[in-house]
Description:
Chain A is an all-alpha fold. Chain A contains eight helices and no strands. Chains A and B meet through helix 1, helix 3, helix 4, helix 5 and helix 7 of A and helix 1, helix 2 and helix 3 of B.
Amino acid sequence: xxxNHDRIQELRQQFDLGRNPSFDDKEDxxxxxxxxxxxxxxxxxxxLLFANYTTLISTCRDAEDTLPDVLKKAIAALxxxxxxxxxxxxxxxxxxxxxxxxxxxxxxxxxxxxxPNLLRGTTSAYPACWKKKKN
Amino acid sequence: MxxxxxxxxxxxxxxxKNAATLFPAPDDLPGSTLAAPSPVLITVTPADEPVAAKxxxxxAKxxxxxAKxxxxxAKxxxxxAExxxxxAKxxxxxAKxxxxxNEASAEEVKAEEPAKVRISLS
Lengths: 135, 122
């Protein structure tokens, strides 16, 4: 379920103008989630970097059991800002997944929603994946 | 054969399932002096800047208009208050006149009373 588009844009504009809007418990969680996804989606380069795309995708397809090691190396080589944000986000999403009984957002569903915002290639941009899924 | 989007999902699942072991401690990061993630700011991309500036100008315009309206409202409120004061003054004057009229009537009644008594006695 997506958050209210106008509210997401309003908050985004406030951040872009250097303001720091506060979120109270009345704020729709879907709006906040939508804002996080929008931020990740609009990064000039995905959090996991274009350079890691091919390696990670091919490892996942051809040798999934080695994926954790490959990921560990890729994450260790990330720029500090990417590394910290990815760690923060991963910890946060794991904590969200612990409420899956109520929210239905277990690790698999969260990965489906956030994955395309974290990892994409230069040629196969994520919107293509989405279009493919929609069709 | 898994689709590209399925593979992306699986990579992400792997990150989430192994989050505890995939990330080295902050102190072990090259060049890191940070103990905790710094706040994440959404930066303005070059394409957004003109839009953001326009929005800021429009916001300033609206704020100026709002300030004008507030001044006008304040003026009207002062005028209304002045009218209220005048009305109160008139009410006081009216009350005085009524009181004087009542006094005069009472005097008249008093003056007439002996005649009535006389009439009743005769």
